[in-house]
Design brief:
508 residues
């Protein structure tokens, strides 16, 4: 029943206490039967969950799951729905139709002398267009603008993703015009109060390729407000202070020895040690964390001790003498399955592929890109912007002192270029403020005044076909490079595709 539901609903979402914890459009799952039990394993880049399924109750359009966590007897419940949008299909379609009529009415009033042509929400999978966005054309004589809009009832991620689809829509309009109709640029309409991310991204689009205008629409008052995207310098970013990883590892040395001592001798050398902070160390295998050590105050005391846990998320468990055998069994299973000779049928092998790729790149980046200083790589650097906690995949520097932002993807992602642009903007802002030097990053290295280099690294067959189009509309000041790897990158890494900024160009 579970398997059929996931197959029939590829956009399903898993809800717990009414909150989306897994979006199956990007998350993964596996089902297995062990000792007469149904085990459901769910994982994404944010979390990992393994539950024993005790019962499934069918509802009209969803499944209510009764489950138990490992070591607990009390049942817990969560729900699987066809889409993270809780509205019924008819309600959702009605809201989009109403918004389309509202948009046409507002545009006709806001742009007198212009005709609003062919507004649509029809799905066009060939060109990556979905029904959440209203697309159309503003026309006056021979001058045209591509138009894309989204209503306030769509998810925040859908609203933030509108610029990617807008660029693709503009490119599509230009291609369909066959040079007979001139498309001057792109107009983007978003709900009131939701333009911050789109504004920051739009400031870094190529003004020679097209013109771009951003508007916020208040559906209640039907007022259309122009958003100024010309100024990108108001981005507020905070950087966490750098710490000494070697010192953190030394502080946790005894606890590290304890954990490694529970592993078979042949496995110890494979475990990865990474300092997450001055008093926290994680142990991982190919990027997948299986244990964590924290130095903290003991309960009701000022004495500092090392707390060791294993598992992740809701399944994180303190390591005690009583469950050391369990830890050995779990890690033995992990090391046996998450290895280069593993199989995609195994969930431990498939789990967190981007962390695996990131781990491999930390070792091999100099071979794939000789210009990078392999000894100076920062992983998961926290950079906060307007309350959002951004984590840079990899931040490093070239031999010439130019900063390099590396965004890693293991699966195709339509929004990869503009998501990477978010991180590039933060690094550029911090670099211009000399924040890296003040916060202890890149000691002893003189950083170049050049804009940071932006690397997008993914398996070549997993790079979304629309990536080239989106990248061709980025500002010329952004130096970028796409590196496509071989499909069997877990075994060995080899560059089979390389594209650089300046090699692509949008059609006018």
């Amino acid at each position: 029943m579970l398997d059929d539901f996931f197959i029939e609903n590829p956009q399903a979402a898993v809800l717990e206490d009414g909150r989306v914890i897994f979006d199956m459009a990007s998350a993964r799952y596996s089902l297995s039967s062990e000792n007469g039990r149904c085990l459901l394993h769910l994982w994404s880049e944010e979390r990992n969950m393994v539950r024993t399924v005790c019962g499934v109750r069918e509802r009209k359009d969803s499944l209510r799951i009764e489950s138990r966590r490992f070591g607990q007897s009390r049942p817990q419940f969560f729900e699987i729905v066809p889409t993270r949008d809780h509205r019924s299909p008819s309600t959702r379609d009605l809201a989009r139709t109403r918004y389309q009529h509202l948009l046409e009415r507002v545009l006709t009033r806001a742009f007198p002398g212009w005709s609003v042509d062919n507004l649509r929400t029809a799905t066009d999978l060939e060109h990556s267009f979905g029904p959440a966005y209203t697309r159309g054309v503003l026309r006056r004589g021979m001058t045209n603008w591509a138009l894309i809009a989204v209503n306030s009832e769509e998810s925040p991620a859908t609203i933030d993703g509108i610029l990617t689809l807008g660029i693709l829509w503009l490119a599509h309009c230009r291609e369909q015009g066959d040079g007979k109709r001139f498309f001057e640029g792109l107009k983007v309409v978003v709900p009131a109060g939701t333009s911050r991310t789109i504004k920051a991204r739009m400031a870094w689009l190529n003004r020679f390729a097209a013109k771009y205008e951003l508007y916020e629409l208040d559906a209640r008052s039907e007022e259309l407000a122009v958003i100024d995207c010309s100024e990108s310098g108001n981005l507020q970013v905070k950087l966490m202070h750098a710490f000494n990883p070697r010192t953190a590892l030394e502080r946790c040395g005894k606890a590290i020895d304890r954990v490694l001592g529970l592993l078979d001798p042949g496995l110890r050398a494979t475990a990865e040690l990474r300092a997450n902070g001055p008093a926290e160390v994680s142990l991982a295998l190919h990027g997948l964390e299986f244990a964590r050590i924290r130095r903290e105050f003991a309960a009701n005391s000022f004495a500092i001790h090392d707390e060791v846990t294993f598992g992740a998320g809701a399944n994180e468990t303190p390591l005690t003498p009583e469950n050391e055998d369990l830890f050995r069994d779990l890690t033995q299973r992990l090391f046996e399955n998450r290895c280069e000779s593993g199989t995609l049928r195994n969930p431990l092998y498939r789990l967190q592929p981007e962390r695996w790729l990131e781990s491999a790149l930390r070792r091999d980046i100099a071979e794939l890109e000789p210009g990078i200083r392999a000894e100076m790589i920062y992983t998961q650097v926290p950079a906060l912007s307007a309350g959002d906690r951004g984590m840079l995949d990899l931040l490093t520097v070239t031999h010439s002192g130019q900063l390099a932002v590396i965004e890693v993807k293991a699966d195709d992602d339509l929004h990869l270029p503009l998501q990477a642009l978010d991180y590039w903007c933060r690094v550029r802002k911090l670099h211009r403020e000399q924040a890296f030097q003040r916060h202890g990053y890149f000691p002893g290295i003189e950083l170049s005044d050049q804009p940071p280099m932006l690397y997008l690294i993914a398996p070549a067959l997993r790079i979304h076909p629309a990536t080239d189009t989106v990248l061709s509309y980025l500002a010329a000041e952004i130096p970028w490079e796409v590196i496509g790897l071989n499909e069997d990158w877990r075994t060995r890494r080899k560059v089979i595709l390389r594209k650089r900024s300046g090699s692509l160009g949008p059609r006018n």
